[in-house]
Amino acid sequence: MVRTRFAPSPTGYLHIGGVRTALFNWLFSRKHGGQFLLRIDDTDQERNVEAALAPILHGFRWLGLDWDEGPEVGGPHAPYYQSQRLPRYQDAARKLLAAGLAYRDFATPDELRLERETAEAEKRPFIYSRRWMAETDAQAKSFEGQGRQGVVRLKMPREGKLLIPDLVRGDVEFDWAREQDHVIQRADGTCLYHLASVVDDFDFEISHVIRAEEHLSNTPRQIFIAQSLGYPLPEYAHLPYVAEPGSKNKLSKRKIAAYLKNPDFKKVYDHGQGIATALGLTTSAETFNPVIVDFYEQVGYLPDAILNYLVLLGWSLDDKAEFFSRDEMIANFSLERVGKSPASFDPKKLWSFEDKYMQDLPTKQKVPKLIPYLQQAGFLPKPVPCEVGPRLAQIVEAAGNRIKTFGDILSFTSFLTADDQIKYDEAAFDKAIRAPGAVELLTNYRTQLATVEPYEVPRLETFSQEFIAAEGKKIGELVHPLRVALTGQGVGLGLFDTLAILGRESSMRRIELAIYKAATVGRGSVT
RNA sequence: GGCCUGUUCGUCUAGCGGUUGAGGAUGCCGGUUUUUCAAGCCGGAGACAGGGGUUCGAGUCCCCUACGGGCUACCA
Q1: Which is the catalytic residue, given A141, A155, A253, A382?
Q2: Helix, strand or coil for residue A41?
Q3: DSSP label at A99?
Q4: Which helix (H) or strand (E) holds A185?
Q5: Count of CA atoms in the C-beta half-sphere (13 A) of A160
Q6: CA–C1' distance A470–B5 (Å)?
Q7: Residues A276, A299: contact at Cβ < 8 Å?
Q8: What is the pLDDT of residue A524?
Q9: How many helices (H) and strands (E) are present in chain A, helices listed first?
Q10: How far is the CA of A22 from the C1' of B6 (A)?
Q11: Distance (Å, rounded) from C-alpha A484 to C-alpha A510?
Q12: Which of A13, A110, A243, A376 is the most exposed place for a label (fewest CB within 10 A)?
C-alpha cells in the first residue's frame, strides 16, 4: 500500500511551493491507489494551532486535495498532531538509549561552542568529542552532581558510507563520519523534529517520503534513527525547490517587495489587488500575495488551473502535453519524470493556464461562482432575485474571455446599477462624449433607437451601420461615445451586446443622461 | 570552511552518444482580424554556464571552475 504524507507547520498560510510538494505526494498516492495523509508539525508552537491551521486546511479543500487521514478527518493512527505524540517519541528515545545507539550528554552550550570554534580555527570539520557523554547511570549522576543538564544525542557511526536511493536524484552517497551526534531529546524531555518525523512516518506506515530537497541532507540521520529502531525504510524522493520569478533563488514569501519589481509578478499582483479593493477586502502581505494560495482563491482563480500549472513545475510527461485534467494528472504522474533542477515560479504562465481554463468553463458553471463577488462588492442583494441568473448569463456570454478570474466580473457591474447611478471614467468621458459632433450624433442615434425592431444584436448592428452611413461618419465616431454613455467606461464588451443586455429603455435613458451631463457639467467633474 | 545537490531559449521544459542546422509551451516582437479591451490566427527573434577530457561522434559520459540551493541548531 502506497502511503504518502504532507506535513505542514501551522503558520497561517499555504505557500505555493508547499502546495507543489503536497500535490506531488497526493498525485503519487492516487496514482497507485494509495492514501495521502496530513500530519501537523507543531512540535514548536504551543499557541493557537487550530487558528493557524484553518487557512491551510481550507486551502487544501479549495484546491480539491483531499486527505485520507489527518486533522478533521481523523484516522486509525490519530492523533496527527506532533504536539500530541510526545510519549511515542520519548519511548523511541528510551529504546535508542537502551540499545546504546544514543547517549545522554551533559555538555553545556558554551563547551560545545568552544569545541566547534576550535575545530573551525583548525580548519577541520567539527565532530563532537563526546567528552560529556554518560553511558552509565554513575556517570550521569556524577555530571548531574555538577549541576549539569542532560540531553539525548544520537551516537552516530564514525566510519563507513551510506547510500540513499532517491527516486528523483538517483543514488546519493554520504560519509557517516561527517554526521553530527544530533540531539533528539531536550533536557526538559521534549523531542526534536528528526526523531518525531521518523517515528511518525513509521507509525503512520508511510511508504514514500516525498519532500523538498532541503531534507536530503537530513536523511542520513533519519535513516540512522529508523534503522536503530528497527523500522523498515521508506522510499525517498527529494523534490527540487521552487525558485523566484526570473531567477534561481529560492522563493520566499518575505520578499514580495523585490518580486514586485518583476513586471509579470506585478501585473498579477495588481490585478488581484484591484479586485480586492473592489471587494472591500483588507489585504495584508502575509496572505494576499501571489506566493500564497489564499490570494488565488480570493481573486477567483480556478483550482484546476493552478494545479495544472503546478504539476508542470518540475514535472513533465513529454515534449508536448500541457493540459491535464485531474484524472489525467493522476494517470500520468510518475516520480521518474520529476526534474532535478529548481523551477522558477512564473505567475504569468499560471495566468495563461487560468485564461485557458476559464475560457473552457461553461457559462452555467461560471454564473454561480460570480454571484458571491457581486454580493460582496454590493452589486447584488443577499438572497439573489431570480431574474439575476439569466441576466448574468447574458453578461457572461457577451464578456467571453474577458472574465479571466471570477473577480473580473466586477469590471462589468455597470449592467447591474441603476441608469442614473453610472460612474463615468473621467478621461474616457471627456475624450469620447466631448469629442466634436459626438453629442449631436448620440442625440440622433437615441431618437432612432426608439423604433429599432427587433431590439436584438443582429438588428442593432445593421441598424447602427445604416445609421452611420447615413450620417456620413465612421463607425468609431459612434461606438466610442456610445460605449461611454452606456457603461461609463472606454473599454468593455462588444457594443451591440451592451445595447442588447441593457435593453431599449435603459440604453436610451443612459444616452440621454450622458448628453445632459456633457451639457451641464464641466470637464473633469462628471462623477 | 566541510559535506550533499543542481545548471538546455527571459521562464516552464523535451532531449536518456549519432534521426537535432536543438522540439513544444509561456512571455516578447511583427503581421492579420476588429467598434474598444481581451481573445483568435499567421510569422519572427530567442538556449545546451565556462574550460578540459573520453569517443569515429557529446546537450547527452568523466573531471575542474563559476554560480544557485541545502545540511553542518537543544529550528522544522
Answers
A1: A253
A2: coil
A3: T
A4: strand A183-185
A5: 7
A6: 74
A7: yes
A8: 75
A9: 20, 12
A10: 22
A11: 9
A12: A110
Of the candidates A378, A478, A373, A465, which has an alpha carbon nearest to the alpha carbon of residue A423? Answer: A378
Nucleic strand B contact set for A 470-509 (CB, < 7 Å): 475-476, 479-480, 483, 490-496
pLDDT for residue A286 is more than 90: no
* Amino acid (one-letter) located at A166: D
Residue A102, exposed/middle/buried by CB under 10 A (0-12, 13-18, 19+)?
A: buried
3-class SS shares of chain A: helix, strand, coil, % to 5: 55, 10, 35
Pairwise CA distance, residues A274 & A439, whole Å: 32
pLDDT tens by residue, A105-155: 999 999 999 999 999 888 889 999 999 999 999 999 999 999 999 999 999
Q: How many other CB atoms are there within 10 angstroms of residue A127's CB atom? A: 16
Residue A417 pLDDT > 70: yes
**Protein chain A, residues 268-307, with a C-beta closer than 7 Å to any atom of nucleic acid strand B:** none
Going by the DSSP 8-state scheme, the letter that residue A211 receives in this structure is: E
| Nearest nucleotide (CA of A309 to C1') | B12
Phi-psi region of A436 (alpha: psi -120 to 50; beta: other; left: phi over 0): beta
**Residue type at A420?**
D
pLDDT of res. A473: 92
Phi, psi of A148 (to 5 degrees): -85, 155
Does residue A429 contact residue A422 with C-beta atoms inside 8 Å? no
A178 backbone dihedrals φ, ψ, rounded to 5°: -85, -10
- Any atom of strand B under 7 A from CB of A114? no
Give the integer Cα–Cα distance in Å for A501 and A403.
Answer: 17
Residue written as cell 544514543?
A102
pTM for the full predicted model: 0.95
CA–CA separation, A107 and A90 (whole Å): 21
A69 Cβ contact list (under 8 Å, min separation 6): A35, A37, A38, A75, A76, A77, A78, A80, A204
Q: Cβ neighbours of residue A131 under 8 Å, at least 6 residues apart?
A: A107, A111
Q: What is the full DSSP assignment across A353-397?
A: HHHHHHHHS-HHHHHHHHHHHHHHTTSS-SSPPTTHHHHHHHHHH
Cis check: omega of the bond before A454, within 30 degrees of 0:
yes
C-alpha–C-alpha distance, residues A219 and A233, integer Å? 11
Residue showing cell 441598424:
A463
Nearest to A357 by CA among A399, A390, A403: A403
Note if A253 is an active site residue.
Answer: yes
Residues 414-443/A with CB < 7 A to strand B: none
* DSSP code for A206: -
φ and ψ of A238, to 5 deg:
-105, 120
Strand partners, A328: none
Radius of gyration of chain A (CA): 32
A236 three-class SS: strand
By the 8 A CB rule, do A265 and A33 touch? Answer: no
pLDDT over 90 at A38, yes or no: yes
**H helices of A164-262, where?**
193-203, 219-228, 256-259
**DSSP for residue A231:** P
Return the biggest CA–CA distance within chain A. Answer: 110
